[in-house]
Task: inverse folding
């Protein structure tokens, strides 16, 4: 399964079966986590066989059940931390999908105190959110999307790669399914993205950028500085 196929098939899952992760899946995820940490200067960590983080009132309020594994998205505090964790976190989400695993982005409905007790968080670092991980009781359902024309702007006719990038971006998970982003195509194939506000909007930007790159192909454009 390619990453593009993974983003087409992947949906948020909140209920999981009581099955341990396969050792090979753990190895592949750990290798990618290490790569993401090196590239992004982050401290993302995988936690397995730990049900307490999703065993409190808030988790039940969020309708989570059976979650025993998660990826803690941690990194040094800074203006770009949330966007970087969104970007690299989504790459881990899509990799998990290729391994036959299911995931869900979680910010509020998890015991962050429990997560912090199980992870190594150094001075100056911050836990932003986590990714629930495991074998889903079901595969989830697709979310509704806003029309493409409300999510992008172009100066003149847009090339096919831009539309493919937008198709992938429209499938990106965002907080409360708000899709509060705007992607613009400028001169010389320079693409920009901005947030239109909302909860965890910076994390959303990173997730959407990840999807757009997979759909469009990074060889076709560059992001605006």
Result:
């Amino acid at each position: 399964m390619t990453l593009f196929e993974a983003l087409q098939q992947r949906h948020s899952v909140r209920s999981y079966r009581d099955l341990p992760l396969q050792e090979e899946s753990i190895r592949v995820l750990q290798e990618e986590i290490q790569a993401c940490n090196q590239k992004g200067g982050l401290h993302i960590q995988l936690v397995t066989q730990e049900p307490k983080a999703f065993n409190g009132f808030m988790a039940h309020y969020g309708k989570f059940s059976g979650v025993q594994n998660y990826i803690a998205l941690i990194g040094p505090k800074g203006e770009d931390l949330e966007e970087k964790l969104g970007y690299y976190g989504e790459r881990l989400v899509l990799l998990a999908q290729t391994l036959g695993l299911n995931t869900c982005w979680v910010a509020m409905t998890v015991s962050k105190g429990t997560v912090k007790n199980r992870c190594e968080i150094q001075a100056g670092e911050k836990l932003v959110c986590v990714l629930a991980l495991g074998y889903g009781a079901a595969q989830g359902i697709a979310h509704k999307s806003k029309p493409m024309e409300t999510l992008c702007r172009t100066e003149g006719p847009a090339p096919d790669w831009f539309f493919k990038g937008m198709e992938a971006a429209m499938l990106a998970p965002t907080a409360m399914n708000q899709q509060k982003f705007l992607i613009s195509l400028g001169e010389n194939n320079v693409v920009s993205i901005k947030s239109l506000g909302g909860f965890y909007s910076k994390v959303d930007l990173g997730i959407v950028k990840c999807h757009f790159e997979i759909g469009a192909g990074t060889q076709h454009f560059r992001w605006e500085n």
Remarks:
- The mean pLDDT is 94.
- The CA atoms of residues 166 and 212 lie 6 Å apart.
